[in-house]
Task: inverse folding
């Protein structure tokens, strides 16, 4: 080949190289902006009898994953081969050993304050049951990341009787969201430390440990954390999963173990509502639900489900309770009741009420509604408290603004179960703002039943709660002056003794409950109060039966002939 042709060939090669580099560069630029598809898992979340190998794949890039519930990044474990998934229960306890979640675990604080533990909460001495939590992300050569994929695997749980017949809920969130000193919602944390600094030392003994400051006492969206949640039914089918917000819920019970949680659907998490059908079998769309840990009824957790089930036909609002066992960041975290929250979407769905037309009060503040709605509520209370209810004309005016049958049923029940955390606490009323031609949409105030965990104590079964409530509740004190109301109230309490709270009916409920829950509650005792056993749970259930037998005789003796 002569020199001229060799020069031409070199020129063509150079042009081709330049063109190739340009095209490659264009492809680089294009690929650098392309979304990365999420990691694919060979096995979906769920329950498995035997160990297995989990394979992960993605279209391009490398897979990084975590096993500790933290969000994966470029520094996380690199996936290079299938991962053995087996029963993780034998792994060391991690999050369940954190002591800052409860003052009763902080012996240093109790010693300085002069307080003794009330419930006997302890960190576990044995490995708690665990699930394997996988969080994985694909990261390409340009640093682009896919969405995080989450999975939770329960292996060998078919051999664990503590979960027989129980729904399971798994909540996965960055552990720092729960346990970090500054932002963790589950700990005493910075809020408690700041209160100590302000007081110049650990505060002296307080009447209620639940009154002490702590991160877990903080409220509002600032203290809501994102979590990935899976709901499994008793047959181990995945009913619902997705990202939601979680917050600590409750009053004084926030210091206890385990803690109640609210779960929120929000657009920024991926869904604006929680479908009630897979959770409660109802055709509702809810914005939030409650995962209730039982509060002060921690020994049995029977109080709310018993009342709401047996009194479902009474003329006040009750709600559904579904039993769950929780795994928090892969570790067993106790027995809970999943319930709808009494918010406007619940009322609107249940009664077909127009959007935004519900007013609900809770312990004398507006829970659902606007500031303007407080006036008619206070007007109703003044109408009752400031007028002589023995005058039938005044009583008739009251009956125009309240559903008197609801009031009679509600007071009769609270008095019957001897609720000591009432009437000063745990009171709630609701009504519609605008009258509609629908059930319970007549604009009258009706009662909402919630939180009866400090009731049904055999030692209070023969107490006169009418006298007690008259001294504590000016509304009841006024109403009971009316002969019609008083006679209807006494008759309703006698009806309860012979009907919904008849000892035979209560005993059947309690026996069924105890048989269903004994292993689950024994598992919770081992986790949080390992000085207790399943036999203690059964004895506490027997105390409930004893209360209702004694109360039945007491009520019929007092009011059976009226």
Result:
């Amino acid at each position: 080949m002569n020199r001229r042709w060799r020069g031409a060939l070199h020129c063509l090669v150079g042009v081709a190289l330049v063109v190739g580099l340009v095209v490659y560069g264009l492809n680089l630029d294009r690929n650098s902006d392309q979304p990365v598809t999420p990691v694919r898992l060979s096995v979906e979340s769920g329950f498995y009898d035997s160990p297995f190998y989990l394979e992960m794949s993605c279209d391009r890039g490398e897979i990084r994953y975590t096993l500790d519930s933290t969000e994966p990044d470029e520094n996380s474990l690199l996936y290079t081969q299938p991962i053995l998934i087996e029963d993780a229960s034998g792994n060391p306890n991690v999050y369940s050993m954190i002591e800052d979640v409860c003052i009763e675990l902080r012996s240093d604080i109790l010693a300085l304050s002069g307080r003794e533990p009330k419930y006997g909460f302890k960190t576990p001495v044995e490995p708690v049951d665990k699930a394997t939590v996988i969080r994985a992300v694909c990261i390409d050569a340009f640093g682009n990341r896919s969405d995080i994929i989450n999975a939770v695997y329960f292996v060998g749980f078919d051999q664990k009787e503590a979960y027989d017949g129980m729904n399971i809920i798994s909540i996965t969130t960055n552990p720092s969201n729960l346990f970090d000193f500054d932002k963790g919602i589950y700990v005493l944390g910075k809020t408690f430390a700041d209160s100590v600094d302000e007081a110049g030392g650990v505060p002296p003994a307080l009447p209620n440990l639940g009154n002490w400051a702590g991160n877990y006492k903080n409220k509002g969206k600032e203290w809501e954390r994102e979590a990935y949640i899976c709901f499994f039914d008793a047959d181990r089918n995945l009913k619902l999963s997705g990202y939601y917000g979680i917050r600590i819920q409750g009053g004084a019970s926030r210091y206890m173990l385990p803690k109640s949680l609210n779960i929120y659907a929000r657009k920024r998490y991926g869904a604006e509502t929680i479908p009630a059908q897979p959770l409660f079998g109802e055709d509702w769309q809810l914005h939030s639900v409650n995962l209730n840990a039982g509060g002060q009824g921690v020994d049995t957790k029977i109080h709310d489900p018993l009342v709401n089930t047996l009194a479902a036909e009474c003329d006040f609002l009750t709600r559904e309770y579904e039993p769950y066992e929780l795994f928090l960041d892969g570790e067993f975290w106790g027995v809970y009741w999943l319930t709808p929250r009494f918010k406007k979407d619940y009322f609107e769905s249940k009664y077909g009420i127009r959007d935004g037309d519900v007013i609900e009060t809770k312990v004398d503040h507006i829970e659902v509604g606007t500031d303007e709605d407080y006036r008619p509520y206070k007007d109703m209370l003044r109408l009752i408290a400031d007028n002589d209810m023995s005058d039938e004309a005044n009583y008739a005016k009251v009956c125009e603004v309240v559903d008197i049958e609801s009031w009679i049923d509600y007071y009769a029940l609270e008095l019957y179960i001897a609720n000591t955390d009432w009437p000063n606490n745990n009171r709630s009323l609701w009504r519609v703002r605008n009258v509609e031609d629908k059930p319970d949409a007549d604009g009258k105030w009706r009662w909402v039943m919630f939180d009866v965990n400090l009731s049904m104590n055999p030692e209070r079964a023969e107490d006169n709660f009418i006298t007690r409530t008259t001294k504590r509740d000016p509304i009841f004190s006024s109403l009971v002056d009316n002969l019609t109301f008083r006679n209807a109230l006494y008759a309703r309490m006698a009806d309860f003794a012979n009907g919904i709270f008849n000892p035979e009916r209560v005993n059947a409920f309690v026996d069924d409950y105890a048989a269903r829950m004994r292993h689950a509650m024994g598992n919770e005792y081992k986790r949080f109060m390992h000085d207790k056993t399943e036999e203690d749970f059964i004895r506490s259930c027997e105390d409930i039966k004893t209360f209702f037998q004694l109360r039945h005789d007491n009520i019929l003796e007092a009011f059976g002939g009226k």
